[in-house]
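step: validate -> pass
step: tokenize input -> pass
step: predict -> running
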Amino acid sequence: MIKIHNAFTGGNIRVRELCGDTVLLENEIRDTEGDWFYWAFCVEGAEGRELTFKLGSDRLGYFGPAVSHDLCEWHWLERVDGDSFTYRFGENESKVYFAHDLLYLPDRFSSFCKRKGLAVSELCKSKKGRSVPCLCLGGGETSIIFTSRHHACEATGSYVMEGVIDELSSSPLPNSRVLFVPFVDYDGVVDGDQGKARRPHDHNRDYTDEPLYAEVRAIMKHVDTYGVNYGFDLHSPWHKGGVNDTIFVVRNRTDKLDRYDRFSDIFENEITEGSMSYSKQNDFPPSTEWNQPSANFGYTMNSRPDCTLAFSLESAYFGTPENKVSTERLIELGRCFARVIKKYIEENR
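step: predict -> pass
step: emit ->
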């Protein structure tokens, strides 16, 4: 008997109807204000069957769904037909996961840190009582903070963070304390929420005098203790199209445009052949469209007198045929980004 469900870390789906070999699905918006596009589901008991899954308007990327058998290693199906895709299950494929994008879940982060011999600490307890992981590298006068998953569904930033950690753990920044918070909306990541525009506001609109979320309060406590000279928030952008198919920096202050320009020049020069490509012409200017001053991480950190530079780095969910997103290319992007930071900090010591 075929079972289609969301009972796993990151799961998000509702089965509307099963009609023969066609399955009608919709994603769960939950407490997001308005619409969003994230979904992830598991199919069990479909060995030898060919099924077509219909997900509704604008829910699939250019390369079809991401597919996995273990929630750790993912690849693109490379087939998509409008708002649907078809999958032929092998005779031994008793359990297959499908998702909007290349998921990055807490077990992968734990396994990565264990392989690297890195000691994961507890940032705080989440609203639901879960232990929220963080990682600290080094010590010294310069305080750097990396965050990702302020919006639970934005997994590409987590792969970029893994690359940053890989580079900086092997080649540390001198005289620097680096805090990594890989899952700011930890409950949302585990539960499979959208996370974006969560009511009454999401984690990346919580940098107020009285934050709602324990993770944000813990980050601000760290800032109060150590300050913040550099802050980098790793995101995924809108679903797809235009600048959302690229890698771009969200510039948030007009008085620091010269700093952004220098950082972006170094960034362009550090990109390797194995990385996602980056061009500073795609960077998003301050006070334009949705990029307005707000209680988000990047703007809040960048407004502090001790902060040299802070911003969000957005990495596409899918990319383009010439610049296609993969786990390996996102991780290499993170390594490149770490080398940029080292050069930029060295220039500004």
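step: describe -> The first helix runs from residue 106 to 116.
step: cleanup -> pass
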